[in-house]
Amino acid sequence: MVGSIHERIREDLLAKERRLWTALTSADPGPEIKKMCNEEANLLFPKREVLHLYSKPSISEALKPPFHHFEEYELQEVRVIVIDLMAGTVTYKINARRGQDVFRGTGSTTWSQGSDGEWRIVVHQETLL
């Protein structure tokens, strides 16, 4: 039984991670990403201050247009680590492109499940290689 529950958690977290990256590559990611965040969430992007709901600038302010993180991306070597039935972490390598610029890095998102059953971001981190 535990195996099937963990598989479902892995599938849910992979779907949430894809939704996060779809938002990151949209023209206006702030509103969608804010909805995906736990109220204590921290977002760590390269060459930026740590963002959270109450930071200056806030997540919504920092990610508003013309923020356009990447035009396309590919996640490789994706691992989902089930911490417990209410938390998990997704780690991966990132290959991404913006215009002619190519980026390679690593990423990680830790998710927690709220009392409403929704998975929300606790910490998202990207590191350029």
Would you kindly provide a written description of the structure presented here, covering whatever features stand out?
The chain has 129 residues and is α+β, with helices and mostly antiparallel strands. It has one domain: Nuclear Transport Factor 2, Chain: A, CATH 3.10.450.50. The chain contains 3 helices and 5 strands; from the N terminus they run H-H-E-H-E-E-E-E. The protein has a 5-stranded mixed sheet with strand order 1-5-4-3-2. Strand 4 and strand 5 form a beta hairpin. It is globular, with a radius of gyration of 15 Å. The N and C termini lie far apart (39 Å).
- What Rg is obtained from the alpha carbons, in whole angstroms? 15 Å
Number of helices: 3
Weakly predicted, low-confidence segments: none
Largest sheet: 5 strands, mixed
Protein name: DUF4440 domain-containing protein
Domain DUF4440: 13-121
